[in-house]
Amino acid sequence: MYNPIKCILSMPITISEVSKKWGITRATIYKKVNQGKLSRLDSGLIDVAEVVRVFGEPSVSKKTKDTVSIGGYIQGENVALLQEKIRHLEDTLRQSKDREREALEREDWLRGQVENLTQTIGLLEDKTQKKKGLLARFFG
Questions:
Q1: Taking the domain 1-58, which CATH number applies?
Q2: Tens digits of per-residue pLDDT, 55-64?
Q3: Shortest CA distance to 30 belongs to which of 15, 50, 11?
Q4: Residues in contact with 67: Cβ distance below 8 Å, sequence separation at least 6, in sequence order
Q5: How far, in Å, CA of 125 to CA of 20, rounded?
Q6: What per-residue string of b and e applies to 98-117 under the rule 16 or more CB within 10 Å gives b?
Q7: Distance (Å, rounded) from C-alpha 29 to C-alpha 16?
């Protein structure tokens, strides 16, 4: 299953992009790399997941009409995909709640049926028992 958030977090970006999106200086980034706290890929780029691990989530800087940007990574087309997934999950949740409500109603009805049958069996047992005579009551 396609997960756009996972794809975003495994995306390599340049040191300049990290500096702009996280609002930290390039010197700070290089310092973390030299200290071994932040690793770079062979291409010289830095994995977004590494940056998030070291510096935390980037701040949401701006939203425009066509593109919604969370740290600059989720674009308009991904927003539409995420909104569609949210609608699908809401529908699924609504259907699950309806099924649960129906199951509870069915369970209540079945409990009532069991109670009625138990009462009926009790009445039938009382009628089928023969009255014992005086001697049978004492000697079984």
A1: 1.10.1660
A2: 888 865 544 4
A3: 15
A4: 75, 76, 79
A5: 85
A6: eeeeeeeeeeeeeeeeeeee
A7: 9
The per-residue pLDDT for 72 is 53
Residue 63, beta-bridge partner list: 68
What is the pTM (predicted TM-score) of this model? 0.39
Q: Where are the alpha helices (DSSP H) in 10-75?
A: 15-22, 26-35, 48-55
DSSP count for the chain of H helices, then E strands: 6, 2
**Domain range summary for the chain, segments of one domain joined by +:** 1-58, 90-126
- Report the distance separating Cα 61 and Cα 83, nearest Å: 21
Contact 13, 46 (CB under 8 A): yes
Q: How far apart are CA 40 and CA 63, in angstroms?
A: 29
Q: How far is CA 52 from the centre of its chain?
A: 22
DSSP SS3 for 40: coil
Give dist(CA 120, CA 94) in Å, integer. Answer: 39
